[in-house]
Protein 1
Amino acid sequence: MPETPEQLYARASESLRMPPVEEWDTFPFDGDMHPRTLRSPLAREIPRAGEGGIDCRACAALDTAYIWTSDNWRLCTTVNPTGLPVILILEPRAHYGEPGDLPDDLASELGLLQARIERAVRTIPEVGRVHVCRWGDGSEHLHWWFLARPARFPQLIGSFAAIWDDILPPLPEGTWRENLALVSSALERPPVSPPPQLERSKSRPSREPSPPAPHRAARPRRSGTR
Ligand SMILES: [Zn+2]
């Protein structure tokens, strides 16, 4: 029997745990911390912006608001420079609410596009990784985040990069625009996939560890406008 929100609240509200964030290299904050009080569940989910396609910002936006478009997809960026080298948002032209709502042909295109855009973002020098994320609690119109994180800062790895974006001062406008120009230029090139990678050696070091706990919060602020 699945647990209801009320049952979760009754079980957890007095038993919240405090993870050892002071030991996490990627945790962005110092100082005494404690979990916030868990508030009781609502009667229903809060409606997302643009629910049902009504007053949907993405549906109403013109192509000129995007840095790249195709017949079925559009790619935009933030209004202003970000703390991370670049942040992009990919949306289908048509209004869909969940990834599982996409028809198979669009879902197939999406897989190719995610790879193509991730490659394009990696053309920015000194980008260590491109996080491809979907939260979707702010706006209903389906959208994926592409978060470029700076290279060679072990503190910035993993899911807390989304928080570090709000902590790092924004890039100088000119640098940010140069980064966007590199991405646009890469996307204008024919969408040829790279040659297959050689089979990985068994002696290859294991992948870098994930942060101790996933950060599952919705993107702060911007998700409310996307
Ligand atoms: Zn929409």
Protein 2
Amino acid sequence: MMNSGVLKDLSSVLRSNPERIDSADLPEQLLDTEYVSEKPIPESHTCPTCGGEAALYDSGDSDDLFRLVCLESHEHETTVTKKELTQYEVELAPLLEDIADTAGLTSTGDVANLFPEFAVQRTEEDVLVCLIGSAKNYDNSVQSAVNYILENQVPAFIVTPRQSVEELHYLIEPYAVVGIIQALTLNRFSDEDFVQETTVSLTSEYEHKQTLFDEQKIGKDDVRWKLEDHPSLIKSKLSTLRTLRENSKHERNGIGRTVWTEFEKVCKAAFAYLDFELEVGQGGVDNEGSEVADAVIGYPPMEIPDRVELSRLHGVVDAKSASQVDFDGEAVSKQLDYFDEIKGDKLYQSFTKLHLFVVFDFDAEKVLDWYETAKLHYPDQTGMVVLTADALRSMVDLNQSPLALSAVNRGEFDTRHVFRYFFDPKLYTRPEFVDVAELLDLSEWSGTEPETQHRYQAEDELLIVTQEMVLEWIDGIHSKQHDTDSLFQVE
Ligand SMILES: [Zn+2]
């Protein structure tokens, strides 16, 4: 059982500067615990009078007294006590061990010290104990801790030295809902019963979910395990994967391979969240080894008031890095086998067909080169869209934003209409959508050569969608909200 007074003092020390505590600031009762230790007296000192360099000498009178002599001026000399010179630091290992123990968990002794942001204790029960530190940017620290937990894919406690968990609630709420993360104040650990109950609920929820997914044969390493219906996880994952990918650019196997597999799955989750229909049994994740598309998505036909009726959209998704893939013709035709498969459908001719790439970044020139080859293999009425992962993340964000949701609820617009534009290159060339084409500057990316822009403009069925475009859309929607533009209305 952890003492509530000790926990209160520890919390305040952890909030200020756990790596350098003056003895005057160290609460007495912490001295008797293993949670703090004395630091060796430093070599260099500063003169309290002028701030210049100073040296320390024995006083000769007592072991507890020292002379602090200024090296800049002979007149600056003071006597200091040993106590004044001594500083302490928080010992994370015993503290984290006791926190885990209080929660009914057995620590493995394996501590990842990422202070001042956070430190993590692993446990035999596979629950992480994550203690937030004193870093100036609290939100960032919590976000880093959350990312760490997500990478490890196990449930975790986030323990804050602050007085309440309220400030971090909006950061962890989506994960708390999924039952992955429980946030507690350090003070809470004086109530052992409460904390242990929390552990039980954390682990049982996790186990329940595990059973559910086992039944569906979805492995624990599958992101769907935690992405289902949780847009914040999708967004966070898209950002994390980008960072991971930056770090593993030159790696062909290992983490590099993992990033791609994860990326495919996150993209699928994102499309599902955006109300696309995912074709069951299609997609790279389920058919690893064969060169099929990563996913096949569908979008129902829709009618836009005063505009036009849009046919059903069928898209083959390929999640990869457009800058490094070998876009050879053979690979394309294999990917597009799907279109052959659905040819038998009597509505096939009316389908709008789409070859969609989700990429972290792209080289417009290479995309154009590749598109020129690919279009030779496409069936009629097939467009190609290159969508950046950031753009996809912003779409998920838009779908989740309270502003958008309330507008949707008021019937002011239908986000599905908005998204449809990004997946249908031909819309932009139709006269009735000329205003949409104008709204988005589809041809200008910073750093793109004029020739490349001309080439791009000449391709009616190729569309590149960047995050800027999506954000511009969002702005457009917000400013149009009070107009009666039928583009955004629900029929
Ligand atoms: Zn001085």
Protein 3
Amino acid sequence: MDEGLKGLILTAPFMTATSRVFVPSVTEEDGGAIGLGVFSTEEIAWKVLRRFLRKSHLMSLTRSDLVVWDVDIVGEEGMTVLSSMHCRDCPVCKRRTFWMDLDSFSAMCTGQACEAWIEESTIDPGKIDLGWPPTRFLKQADSLEDALSDLKEIGTQLEAAGSTPNSAFTSIPEE
Ligand SMILES: [Zn+2]
């Protein structure tokens, strides 16, 4: 674990009463689940999950979940799913690194030097924003399907130009 994350956890408020814990996990293609830990705040749980997903091009993952558990409650009533994301092939870079949250109409490629994204517009409700950071591409679409095909179009252009995000943008530092 890197130092930044360690510091964040050490400075998290201590839990004084029994309360809630935040549990991120991912599922591998063969169905095996990997727990990423149990955390006292949602913020830390998200950071741990997001950091893990950045390496998802090295693994075969199908989904991620962030679940909150009320401590000392027996059974499923103690559990609330905060987020479930599914991993698909990225429409731009084609790697299996495109994390989609279908409830919130958001998606993001965690592949290195790609980071294609989709998000429901906060300004125009019902519209979908999309972008591809390496060329500062930004666009608005009417539906999730349109947004995906706009991103696919970028992928097709890249392919036609004989480049992939991997080879074309290796000079961009990782963080
Ligand atoms: Zn991508």
Protein 4
Amino acid sequence: MFLFDWFEAFLNWLGFLKKEGSLIIIGLGNAGKTTLLQVLSKDVLKAHMPTQRPHMDHFVASNVTFKAWDLGGQQGLRALWRNYTAGSSDSSKLIVIFMVDTTDPQQLGEAKAELHDALEYTNGAPMLIVGSKIDRPGLNREQLIQALDLNSHMLGLNENSPRIMDVLMVSSVSRKGVPELMNWLSKCHSISNK
Ligand SMILES: Nc1nc2c(ncn2[C@@H]2O[C@H](COP(=O)(O)OP(=O)(O)OP(=O)(O)O)[C@@H](O)[C@H]2O)c(=O)[nH]1
Ligand SMILES: [Mg+2]
């Protein structure tokens, strides 16, 4: 067993083993989840109807192929967020993206409540909060952290912290923050799969 683990780690180090990760993307309706997944998987920007049922797509970030579920944020679909997390065989290997529209102050209270709920039922899975639509006037990262009532000392890609949690700011339209998001996901995957 030890030899096998050692050999697997060696192959991994050489880059011979295919790395796979799983991801769910949640957040209130209109936050920009489907638009972001299209940009990550196909690098295209399209208009979408509000998501009616879960949709899966793949994308590659560095050397990791992610299988990503966009679960839809309309009120009636939110019960699924919990089910998909519970259905994951190993929550430490699942990454959760929670998207928040930084241009819509009216939704922040509801987003905060849903996020804090999600932090409970996702069983310690790494949580990346993505502030969306930064090509338009809206909250900056510090204001978003405050509005969502997050402890800034807990944020970052720190493998020794009890839970990996971070906040990144992204625009699917201008692609600002998208390379940093991909980089974050691949690093988080390697920390969680050590
Ligand atoms: N300006 C700007 N608009 C964006 C961006 N991302 C998404 N949008 C717009 O925001 C609206 C909602 O985007 P969607 O991706 O459909 O949102 P969603 O989170 O999937 O919404 P549900 O499916 O209802 O949960 C659309 O009009 C998008 O064009 C962005 O980065 N910048
Ligand atoms: Mg959608």
